[in-house]
Amino acid sequence: MSVFTHIATTGPEQPGACEMCGYGRTITYNWRIAGKEPESQVGGYRQSLEHFGATKNGELYTCNSCGGRWFVYERTACALPVHQLDLFERWSGADQVLTPKHLDIARKIGARPIDVYGNGKRSVDVPCEIEIAGGEVFPAAVVSFQKYPPYEPYKQPARLASEIVDLRPGKYTLPASVRIATAQSREISYGFAPTLIETNSGHPLVINGSPHFMFSTKYAAAKTRPSAKAFDRYKMPPAADDFEQETAYFVADWFDGVEDLRLTIPRQ
Q1: Which is deepest, 22, 147, 225, 244, by most CB within 10 Å?
Q2: What are the sequence ranges of the domains in the chain?
Q3: Each residue's pLDDT tens digit, 220-230
């Protein structure tokens, strides 16, 4: 396996992807390793970039060939999508913080724990319902406390914490006990890490992975709990979700102590 595969995350090839810096093809790569290995593919990517200036929590670079913008922080270089450059400017130009009242609500809801595979270390994510100016409501929203700008494809559509008018527990948000249980689930086949839960009437359901929400027309997410029964792949209960709902991510600034918002996994 090439060094490039180990240190870079690629996305679908975009029309006009840059051969020099990888913009439109590469989402993120290890900036430090790229500097140590100039002959590698990402080493060439790094050499094509020119320092543009300091910005919030990092440095901004521009490709000499295509003009693509790259944000560099700690050990990571990440491509800033063209359609989100305005969002980046607003993120970098102002503090993205919650009011004390909203932060207290977020603390009571709790952020998803880091799962058994280490996913979730780079951000602290709190599921909730959010209302912005004008009365628009996002029933499945996540406040993502992070050091970097919104660029990740799976955290789209992305908005900013400064847009929040009201933050409250959401009807689709899974209880803390369920989110703790799903963070401990392991794959039993590729891409399938089941957690058995049940409704308050004892009806069994299965959740895959460690989601924030449950989208069901039959059962209330808040009235579910981890099941005491063992999961049996040969007696598969219905999936917890029976419809799809878009999740909106509101990016907030990382701060000292933010990791205390994470739900705690009990020690075995």
Answers
A1: 22
A2: 3-80, 100-172+246-261, 176-226
A3: 999 999 999 88
